[in-house]
Structure formats: C-alpha cells, structure tokens
Amino acid sequence: xxxxxxxxxxxxxAVGSLLGGxxxxLLGGxxxxxxxxxxxxxxxxxxxYLLTGLVLGYGAGTGMAAYLTHRMLKGxxxxxxxxxxxxxxxxxxxxxxEPLRLNQVQPLMxxxxxxxxxxxxxxxxxxxx
Length: 129
Prior knowledge:
Elements lengths: L6 H31 L7 H28 L6 H18 L9 H18 L6
C-alpha cells in the first residue's frame, strides 16, 4: 500500500515534518498574539487567539515541511497530499477528542495532537520505486 524503500526515508520525512510544524506553531502563535493585541479589550480571548494560532500554525507547518523534506528525498512532489494529510491528522484529534474521551486524558490528547499530523503526512508521501 505505501511504497517506502526503507524505514529511514519515512523517519526523515516524519522528523522534518515535525520540526517544520514547530516552526509553524511559533509563527502561528505570534500571529495569534498580534491578532489578540489588536482587539480593543484584553480578556481571556487573547489566550484563545494564541492557542488557535499555535494549533493551525502547527498543522500548516507540518504539511509544508513534509512536502519540502519529501522533495529533498527525490520523492513524488505532491504539496496538496502532504498539506491536507497533515491537517486531516490535526483535525481528527481535535474533532474526535470528545467522542473518544481524549479530553479526559490530556497528555494523550496532546501527544496525539503533536505526533499524528507528521506521521500521516509522511505516510501519504510515497517515494518512487
């Protein structure tokens, strides 16, 4: 089903995607912070803007970094597949946290939120045989 010549290429893609996600989270958090400071009143909405920027920035950074890492490994270049699979992993955890009761076990939810997007992005980017 997945066409990886070895596990090392999968690992490189996943780690590159994870590091890009962290950079994207920093940029998204900064954008959320700036958006919160542009609001007329300072409330707990500032925290909401910051967290939204962090989560969405992490998902976008993960997808873009998976694409760039995959491109450096000479794989098939599919930005849409990398980007949307990373966002799918992110939104799976966010939207299924209540039905699966992940919100009752916060460390598990945050680990899944951190690891599932890069793993899905790396799985969806097969290399040429």
